[in-house]
Design brief:
- It is a single chain.
- By secondary structure, the chain is α+β, with helices and mostly antiparallel strands.
- The chain has a single domain (4-114), classed as Glutaredoxin.
- 34% of the residues lie in helices and 13% in strands.
- It has four helices and four strands.
- α1 links the parallel β1 (4-7) and β2 (30-32).
- It is globular.
- The two termini are 16 Å apart.
Length: 115
């Protein structure tokens, strides 16, 4: 079992680059294919705490779903947690988690902060 968990989407080039970078540094994270295996609202709340960000900072604002349904509306944290759980495609990626810390891998080198 790895000390690291990575929220990963195999079809995302940034996610793949981040995984390659981690492997170059000897890290084989446990992969969470979060679009196929969406996190619960509780997991998402814990993730926000580990990242130290507000829900809006976790949103993929370039996604069509976001632009069409959420871009012009204010949402509470609870509402965002529900939206993320129902539409995990809206969660920014990749995310690397280690213990009580996490980082969004944009750019991919950002994950090196957790190594």
């Amino acid at each position: 079992m790895s000390d690291y968990i990575m929220y990963h989407k195999p079809t995302c080039s940034t996610s793949r680059k981040t995984l390659d970078l981690l492997k170059e540094h000897g890290v084989e994270p446990e992969l969470r294919l979060y679009v196929k295996d969406p996190p619960t609202q509780k997991e998402l709340s814990e993730l926000l705490t580990k990242l130290g960000v507000q829900p809006i900072e976790l949103v993929r604002t370039k996604e069509k779903l976001y632009k069409e349904n959420y871009a012009d509306k204010k949402r509470t944290k609870r509402e965002w947690l529900k939206i993320f759980a129902e539409h995990p495609i809206l969660i920014e990626r990749p995310i690397l988690i280690k213990g009580d810390k996490a980082v969004i891998g944009r750019p991919p080198e950002k994950v090196l902060e957790l190594l």
